[in-house]
Structures are given as C-alpha cells and as structure tokens.
C-alpha cells in the first residue's frame, strides 16, 4: 500500500467519525426539542419575540410583555386610591403620591417623561360649592406594574403678595388627600418623553419641581442599565429644596455612567460645596459648555419659565439640532422652538359664534385666546394647563379655522381645537 493511499484512508476514517458525531448530536437536539414541545415548553425560535418585546415595551407589565400584549389606555377618567404618601424634601414642600387603580385593573404603560391629567374637587375658600379643577402632574418614577407616582410641590402665595391665594390644587392635595383617599385621572399622555437614540449621551436639565419627569427618565435608564452616558443638571435655591437628595446621590454612586451636577443659587451656610452641591449659581449654557465633553448630546429640559426661556434658545444658538432638544414647561412659556409665527394682522374683526349658548362675539385680537374669550362671555369651559398640554379644553369646530400661538402637545381629534392656545383665523363657530 502506497503512502498516498494510506493518507487517503486515514482522512476518510476521520471524516466518517466527524459525521457520526454530528449526526448523534443532531439526533439528541431533535429529541430534546420534541420533548420540550410535548411538555408545553417553547422552542428557541419562539422565545426570541418575547425577549424583543421585553426590551421594547415598558417594564410595567412583565406578564403581558411576556405574552406580547400591551394594555390599552382607558378612556375618560379612572379612579385611583392613594396607597402611600412620602415627603421628598427637607422643607416639606414636595410630596409624592403613590396611586393604584380602585378597579383592580392593570396600569397602562407610559413613556418616561409623560404626565397624568387629574380632575379634582376642591373646597371653595369663600364657603360656596366645591370647584372642579383640572391639573396635569408628571409621572416621577419609572413604569411599574403596581402603581403610578406623582410628586407635587405645594405652591404658596407669590413672594410679597400674601393677599393672593396659594395654589388651590397643590395645597388641597397636600392638606386634604391622605392615604386611602381617591383621585380621578386620565391615561398617561404628553409628547415630552425619553427617546431611544442609540449611544448618544443624554443631558437632563431640571429646575425646582421641574425635575419630576426627569426623575422618571433617570430611574428608567438606570433600571434598564442603559449604557448611555447620562448627565443630570439640577438647580434649586439651597439644600432645603433639594428633592430626593439621597435617592439621586445613590443612583449616581451605583451607576458610573450617571453624572450628577447640582446647582444651588442661594446656598445656606451649612450647605457644603462639593458634597451637597457641585456648583453655585444657575444652570446655564456656560456651565454646560464647561462641564460636558465635546460632541453630540440629547437634551431634556424642564423647569420654570425663566430657565426655559433662556436656556432652550441658547442651546439652539449654540448649534444644537432641534431634534436633540426636548423640553416641557409647567406653564405657558414663550419658547422659540415651539412658537408658531402669527402673521395675521387683524384689521376687520372676525365673528366667533358659540352655537350652544347662541352668543356671537366680535374678535378684535384683544383677548389672549379663544378660552379667554369664552370665559369673558360667561361660557363655562373645562380647562387645565392653559398651555396646550392636557387637552381638557378641546372643542369641536363647526365652521371656520383657527391658528395656534404655539404647537399643541395634546393629541387632537379631527375637526377640534384647543381653546387655550388658539385664536380665530376666519369667522368661527364653536360647539360651546
């Protein structure tokens, strides 16, 4: 036998052994898969969709996520019970309310940063009948299966104006609603929420109680162990107003990619620079330029109007792309990015007709909005945020057109408008 023939025979023997081992392994795998199917188990190809869904859907409903189902939002208002209250700052001005549905049903998942719209009955200080008011409050914790959480700041009378009343709804929540009490809320909504944009670093900027939706975003990112770099710039006057101080510090210590940058504008003598806060002053563009690394960032900004009106346009002037700036204001604020130019000059008054009440009023541009006009005529309109966010003043247009002072946040039905931020473009008939 020649050497070549011997090598060929050895090679053939090795290949035969490899084939036999492969066939044996394939048979074992096939038998295991058949056993899993007979016993009710899922094959590997059937597990992957559930894994994908668990990343795409909020963590709020693990059982439904595993089944590939997302609970639908409820319509109208739903009753919730206050399961727990917790004071969140040293001066006791901020209280968190943990809410569970009284019907025992599932909670609608939400996008981190969204809010709930509440309908509340509050006592009349003058002793009359209780008033029904509508307010929006941001969800302040990551989506969970068992409860929603909102964190509400008690609004005092304006500084130096003790003759003016404090915030009616916030004070009612703090003083009247205890554990076991109930609230009525609409499903989560809002266009300010966390987006999934690959590896782009995230910058969260909050002022005062404006940190609440950012808390939700930050808690979601850390819970998911999101690999993106996250910067939180948070501004308050001093340590007594520092909301969830220990919680924020704990998240920063536990997650190396989270960078906490706290600013005190009026620190107390016992507030320690470098320990309690990192910067003295306000959150502004100079601080961002000094602190952030060069490159693209995605900004989420929420705070009082003064901060919003200065910081958001400054980011735009600095060259930050509009799609990388997300913001929310807790009241009407004049922001360049969201405003719609009003090019119509009213020369001849247009007629606004309220069909339900039979009133027709001339619009000459003096009233601030259609909501203001309706209220000046004694027409009762449900309203909440007065900033185009909650959708409470949505009204059907029977004839004519409107234009907006700023883009609405609330989703509108076709043929409807938000009275609080709109004015008539032509003669107009409203179903009021």
Describe it.
- The protein has 432 residues and is of the alpha/beta class.
- It has four domains: 3-67, no CATH class; 78-185, Beta Barrel (Elongation Factor Tu (Ef-tu), domain 3), CATH 2.40.30; 202-329, 3-Layer(aba) Sandwich (Rossmann fold); 350-430, Roll (Ubiquitin-like (UB roll)), CATH 3.10.20.30.
- It is built from nine helices and 19 strands.
- The strands form four sheets. The protein has a six-stranded antiparallel sheet with strand order 4-3-6-1-2-5, covered by helices on one side. Strands 10-9-8-7-11-12 form a six-stranded parallel sheet, with helices on both faces.
- It is globular and about 75 Å long.
- The termini are far apart.
Task: Offer a few descriptive terms.
432 residues; alpha/beta; Elongation Factor Tu (Ef-tu), domain 3; Rossmann fold; 6-stranded antiparallel β-sheet; 6-stranded parallel β-sheet; 9 helices; globular
Number of domains: 4
Q: Count the helices. How many?
A: 9
Radius of gyration (CA) equals 29 Å
Main sheet: which strands, in order across? 4-3-6-1-2-5
Order of helices and strands: HHHEEEEEHEEHEHEEHEHEEEHEEEEE
* CATH homologous group name of the largest domain: Nucleotide-binding domain of ferredoxin-NADP reductase (FNR) module
Helix content: 25-40%
Uncertain stretches of 5 or more adjacent residues: 23-70, 336-346
Strand content: 15-25%
Mean pLDDT: 82
